[in-house]
Amino acid sequence: MKKVSIVIPVFNEKDTLKAIIEKVEQANFAGLEKEIIMVDDCSNDGTTEILKELSSKYKVLFHEKNQGKGAAIRTAIKEAKGDFIVIQDADLEYLPSDYDKLLPLLINDEADVVYGSRFKNSENSKNFILKNKIANKFLTLITNLLYGAEITDMETCYKAFKREVLQNITIKANRFDFEPEITAKLMKKKIKFKEVPISYFGRGHEEGKKINWKDGIHAIVTLIKYRFID
Description:
Elements: E1 3-10, H1 17-26, E2 33-40, H2 47-54, E3 59-62, H3 69-79, E4 84-87, H4 99-107, E5 113-117, H5 130-147, E6 159-162, H6 163-167, H7 178-187, E7 193-197, H8 213-228
Parallel strand pairs: 1-2, 1-4, 2-3, 5-7
Antiparallel strand pairs: 4-6, 5-6
């Protein structure tokens, strides 16, 4: 049976971590065998203790200092053994059951990479914080202009890859610039790329959301940089 590696970067998510793991366990993931890999990016709110408990059942890796989401994903990818790799945040903004829409396209060789688009699902409109929605659409527009692409949601967390595609790309990003870097490098390759609509339940900074306007600036710089260098 083919396997999917579910990569979960974690930083200060003690209030949602167990709930998201339960949802991952309940989700079908297109009938694939599951491998759950969590990376604790040096949490300081009690999350580390929860992960130590979970390490008896799941593969859990620990960073000795905080490095960022991109670094945590990079650590997990090195350990991934699945035929496919997907990314899952440790909050509750996304539904793991939605991966049933992405993975069949990889399994059936209709795509090499599939993004879950929040903007292809009209029901999500009410679940976005307006400024975040505008920022996401602007960054996606910049992506399309720079790379001649036609994607609708560059910054989405839900990305599914054939393992060989992802592991053949060198990721340098440590923080939230993982999203624009991986997208930029994918858009420059001859791969089969698709998007499917997914659900989304946005949260604000008061609820623990960590990305901010500075990360938006870094995203633009990253998109421009990788347009002109390998």
